[in-house]
């Protein structure tokens, strides 16, 4: 796949994440074409990835590549893709990185084009530790699917899922790091204020997070039993408030994604 041309329509965060993961693994495609209406965002991406070809305000050039990634938000995807149906090569594959819009709707937007994949990437892909669920159109033959999976798995795990599950994964695995990162960075600062070196703090926090998850899923204990393993709970009185925030905000956003 690294010998194929790759186009990105949109040069924002998700494009930077995917390119970063492939570059870190030494698997950056040989030809990468990126379009965006925001020239400043394009130049920022070009500074990080000098290999890319920029096409400001010209989506037709990335659409003419072998693999065409639609790295766009749902509200703008239809207007951006609809004019490109004629620019797509018959053997191209369109990979949508957008929630909400299913393959059937994408096919309609693209004038009947059926060689479509949907992927829900998450940020740890930038260090090849991603969890990126994927859905393939029936129009993608098995051999090409295997090639694509090999290319995607450079970024991390890439399970094939049912299309109706994608928005749930968007909430839990794609957005999930945002629920935790600010807390972990706060612990990192506190650890150093308590006298640990930056390296010792990083090592300890990484081991703690990995071990905590292993205890959840590998100890054979109920959730109550796992949480009872540690008697001192400095944030115990705030747990109900935090859980209420999860329920309120995440349920509301999930309903919006599914509407």
From TrEMBL:
> Which family does the UniProt entry place this protein in?
Belongs to the pyrroline-5-carboxylate reductase family.
Task: Please give the Gene3D superfamilies that the UniProt record associates with this protein.
Answer: NAD(P)-binding Rossmann-like Domain, ProC C-terminal domain-like
**Where is each Pyrroline-5-carboxylate reductase catalytic N-terminal domain found?**
6-98
Name of the protein: NADP oxidoreductase coenzyme F420-dependent
- PANTHER family the UniProt entry points to: PYRROLINE-5-CARBOXYLATE REDUCTASE (PTHR11645), PYRROLINE-5-CARBOXYLATE REDUCTASE 3 (PTHR11645:SF0)
Q: Which residues bind NADP(+)?
A: 71-74
Pyrroline-5-carboxylate reductase dimerisation domain location: 163-255
Pfam families, per database record: F420_oxidored, P5CR_dimer
Key word NADP present: yes
GO terms of molecular function: pyrroline-5-carboxylate reductase activity
Its organism's taxonomic lineage begins at: Bacteria, Candidatus Moduliflexota, Candidatus Vecturitrichia, Candidatus Vecturitrichales, Candidatus Vecturitrichaceae
Cite the InterPro entries for this sequence: 6-PGluconate_DH-like_C_sf, NAD(P)-bd_dom_sf, P5C_Rdtase_cat_N, P5CR_dimer, Pyrroline-COOH_reductase
Q: Has the keyword NADP been applied to this entry?
A: yes
State the source organism's domain of life.
Bacteria
> Which species expresses this protein natively?
Vecturithrix granuli
UniProt KW keywords? NADP, Oxidoreductase
GO BP terms, alphabetized: L-proline biosynthetic process
